[in-house]
Write a sequence for this structure.
């Protein structure tokens, strides 16, 4: 994965709450067996609305989305994160995220930043004024050219992995001794769990 | 004396491989269900990195989302090819990837095939006190048997395939307690709709929810699966119901459940799992079963719940301005006007199925309403889709298929069907469906489709009258 320290640029001032994964990527695009090319279906229902932010040339190619509460609610489809990746989005800022979505985003190198509602509102004003927003994982701040400065927090492990572009599977495979030890103990304590499918 | 602990704490503690300083734990996964939609990229990732599947014996694969629900073999017994090339490609990928990794694969034409969340409990693959994951957000359903079960994304599917573990942080706990007897015509589906209506679509975010109380205890495993299935619709990644005699009686003798001495050992451990008296939850919500009516949704969020005797709400009646806006948008999409009685709304489609409501009890409840009646003239399509081949066979043994067919319903092959717009079963744009599934999101049943979530009996009632109907008026 590509390491991320700073995400900087224009932001889509989407603003709305409860943006579910069906909105991010409708079900008819889920039939792919690859991770690439989903950007074309992203936010299809929003794009059907005249004057929507995604088709506004002012925001074309923006790496950041600003949204309301509960972003990414709904299904667990990781296609939502792949679709964002494919449209070039590397960070989403919102007052809250669904747990599954923020996990999927992280695993695909997308930063999810939780900020209070009034801070997000302010960033939306900045984005609408055509100014860039800077998300810095080093200083854990979101800043604007107008001297706005909002601090955020992020899980330390996730931050480490994002900043170093680390692959989670590889990190866990390095714990094989611990996992094998657990399995041996499990075979003693709960012998009925092995060979489940016969 | 040890501290009183919750069911969740006990399962969690039994699965910690390693605890990090920041509280993140490497958690062992006992059971992994795999379907065709969220797995191809995971297998692709393993191949690319030259990694193998660690525990194929703890993994079960079954196709469900993409499968057409029309017959799968022709008159000569030959497989009927899948017309949609992308669906065919996903299904073929699973049929290839799973056996190649040594994973037990239930084929589309096997009697045991069905929706993953129906197959897991039915086969006894789902067990109390296990950690169970699947690349599907309705995995919470398995919590009905006391398994800590949750949906994961494809990267996590890859992580579990390779390591049989996940990195997780412990969640907060919420108790949702429902006490009392359910009124006539009120089903487990109405209970979970009422819960979602009460706490909201994000009310459980960050929590693992344990459903407790006499109402839940009195439910069958099938009913509990319906409740726990929709935990994600109130934001909770997992729902849990403590295992009890009902659970053990359900599991005993199932093909993949423990046998003999293993069963006795398992049972002894399972009995230690229920939450200890005095254990604390971070949040407690209580509902009185007597207050719950047959319910349904009016909008495009599962929290948009109203009793069937109610009316379409006025968006301005909500206190939160954001909700006012969302409700106005929902009503526009749904083609509804505030103040319209729900029972005056006509429907064109009926869907009885999905991992929420496609088990034998659901089909019995719907058949009881359909028996001796006929699907109304305005209904374009009324589907009954059993959750698995075994449910289908059981229903046919009981003659339920005849009841449905004589009443004008279509009796289909098992799969996700009209729950989501991924296979040929779709609701056309602008048309309205009374559906026993779990999601009423914009476009969920097809672009422009309008969904009202209901119980199986209510879906059957809507089918025979052609409009949303209080089932109590039909079977009084
Ligand atoms: S029936 Fe619907 S909710 Fe259940 S697994 Fe299938 S698509 Fe998902």
């Amino acid at each position: 994965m590509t390491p991320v320290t700073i995400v900087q640029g224009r932001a889509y001032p989407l603003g709305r709450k409860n943006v579910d994964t069906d909105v991010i990527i409708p079900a008819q695009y889920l039939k792919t067996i690859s991770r690439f090319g989903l950007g074309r279906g992203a936010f299809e229902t929003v794009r059907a609305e005249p004057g929507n932010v995604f088709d506004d040339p002012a925001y074309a190619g923006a790496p950041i989305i600003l949204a309301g509460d509960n972003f990414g609610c709904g299904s667990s489809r990781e296609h939502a994160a792949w679709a964002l990746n494919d449209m070039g989005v590397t960070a989403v800022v919102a007052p809250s995220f669904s747990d599954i979505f923020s996990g999927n985003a992280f695993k695909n190198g997308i930063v999810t930043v939780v900020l209070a509602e009034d801070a997000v509102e302010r960033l939306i004003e900045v984005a609408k004024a055509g100014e860039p927003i800077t998300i810095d994982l080093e200083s854990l701040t979101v800043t604007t050219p107008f001297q706005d400065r909002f601090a955020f927090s992020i899980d330390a492990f996730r931050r480490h992995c994002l900043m170093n572009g680390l692959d989670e599977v590889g990190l866990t495979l390095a714990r094989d001794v611990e996992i094998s030890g657990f399995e041996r103990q499990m075979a003693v304590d709960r012998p009925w769990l092995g060979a489940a499918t016969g | 004396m040890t501290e009183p602990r919750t069911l969740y704490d006990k399962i969690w503690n039994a699965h910690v491989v390693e605890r990090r300083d920041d509280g993140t734990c490497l958690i062992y996964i006992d059971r992994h269900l795999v379907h065709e939609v969220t797995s191809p990229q995971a297998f692709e990732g393993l191949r690319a990195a030259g990694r193998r599947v660690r525990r194929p014996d703890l993994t079960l694969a079954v196709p469900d989302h993409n499968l057409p629900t029309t017959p799968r073999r022709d008159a000569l017994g030959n497989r009927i090819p899948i017309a949609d090339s992308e669906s065919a490609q996903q299904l073929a990928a699973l049929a290839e990837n799973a056996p190649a990794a040594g994973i037990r694969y239930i084929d589309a034409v096997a009697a045991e095939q069905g929706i993953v969340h129906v197959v897991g409990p039915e086969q006894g693959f789902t067990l109390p006190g296990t950690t169970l994951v699947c690349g599907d957000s309705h995995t919470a359903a398995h919590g009905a048997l006391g398994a800590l079960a949750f949906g994961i994304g494809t990267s996590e599917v890859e992580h579990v395939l390779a390591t049989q573990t996940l990195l997780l942080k412990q969640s907060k706990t919420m108790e949702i307690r429902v006490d009392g007897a359910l009124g006539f015509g009120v089903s487990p589906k109405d209970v979970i709709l009422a819960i979602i209506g009460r706490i909201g679509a994000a009310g459980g975010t960050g929590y693992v929810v344990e459903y407790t109380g006499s109402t839940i205890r009195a439910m069958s495993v099938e009913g509990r699966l319906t409740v726990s299935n929709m935990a994600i619709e109130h934001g909770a990644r997992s729902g849990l119901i403590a295992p009890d005699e009902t659970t053990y009686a359900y599991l005993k003798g199932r093909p993949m459940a423990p046998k003999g001495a293993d069963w006795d050992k398992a049972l002894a451990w399972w009995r230690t799992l229920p939450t200890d008296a005095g254990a604390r939850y971070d949040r407690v919500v209580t509902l009185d079963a007597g207050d719950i009516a047959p319910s349904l949704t009016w909008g495009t969020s599962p929290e948009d719940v109203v009793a069937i005797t109610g009316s379409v709400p006025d968006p301005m009646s909500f206190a939160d301005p954001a909700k006012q806006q969302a409700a106005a948008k929902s009503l526009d999409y749904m083609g509804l006007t505030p103040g319209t009685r729900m029972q005056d709304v006509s429907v064109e489609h009926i869907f009885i199925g999905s991992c929420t409501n496609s088990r034998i009890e659901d089909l019995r409840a719907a058949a009881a309403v359909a028996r001796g009646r006929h699907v109304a003239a305005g209904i374009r399509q009324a589907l009954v889709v059993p959750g698995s081949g075994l449910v289908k066979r059981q229903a046919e043994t009981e003659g339920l298929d005849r009841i449905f067919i004589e009443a004008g319903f279509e009796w289909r092959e098992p799969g996700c069907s009209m729950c989501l717009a991924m296979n040929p079963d779709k609701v056309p744009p602008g048309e309205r469906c009374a559906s026993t599934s779990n999601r009423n999101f914009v476009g969920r049943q097809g672009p422009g489709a309008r969904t009202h979530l209901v119980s199986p009996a209510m879906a059957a009632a809507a089918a025979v009258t052609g409009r949303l109907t209080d089932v109590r008026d039909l079977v009084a």
User: Anything to note?
Assistant: The two ends of chain B are 53 Å apart (CA to CA). Chain B has 16 helices and 19 strands. Chain B touches chain A through 81 residues (CB under 8 Å). The pocket of iron/sulfur cluster is lined by residues B 64-65, 115, 117, 136, 138, 354-355, 416, 419-420, 437-438 (CB under 6 Å).
